[in-house]
TrEMBL record:
<keyword id="KW-0813">Transport</keyword>
<dbReference type="GO" id="GO:0005886">
    <property type="term" value="C:plasma membrane"/>
</dbReference>
<dbReference type="InterPro" id="IPR003439">
    <property type="entry name" value="ABC_transporter-like_ATP-bd"/>
</dbReference>
<dbReference type="InterPro" id="IPR027417">
    <property type="entry name" value="P-loop_NTPase"/>
</dbReference>
<feature type="domain" description="ABC transporter">
    <location>
        <begin position="20"/>
        <end position="69"/>
    </location>
</feature>
<dbReference type="GO" id="GO:0016887">
    <property type="term" value="F:ATP hydrolysis activity"/>
</dbReference>
<keyword id="KW-0547">Nucleotide-binding</keyword>
<dbReference type="Pfam" id="PF00005">
    <property type="entry name" value="ABC_tran"/>
</dbReference>
<dbReference type="GO" id="GO:0005524">
    <property type="term" value="F:ATP binding"/>
</dbReference>
<protein>
    <submittedName>
        <fullName>ATP-binding cassette domain-containing protein</fullName>
    </submittedName>
</protein>
<keyword id="KW-0067">ATP-binding</keyword>
<dbReference type="InterPro" id="IPR051120">
    <property type="entry name" value="ABC_AA/LPS_Transport"/>
</dbReference>
Amino acid sequence: MSKLSSLHLRKVYKGRAVVKDSSLEVNQGEIVGLLGPNGAGKTTTFYMFVGFIKPDGGKVFLDDIEITKEPMY
């Protein structure tokens, strides 16, 4: 069964940390939602998780294989 996971994701914009130490694991068939107030980093976390933007720290894995620096395609 496939899983997509991240460990300690971090993103900084203009000197401001918008995501700090975010870790997440999603197994095949699961539905997951990210909840939080405006400006909490939900969209940025999701974009790093799926490869739309590169994190400044942390790693993303697909089935325990690191894919953080792999191209999206």
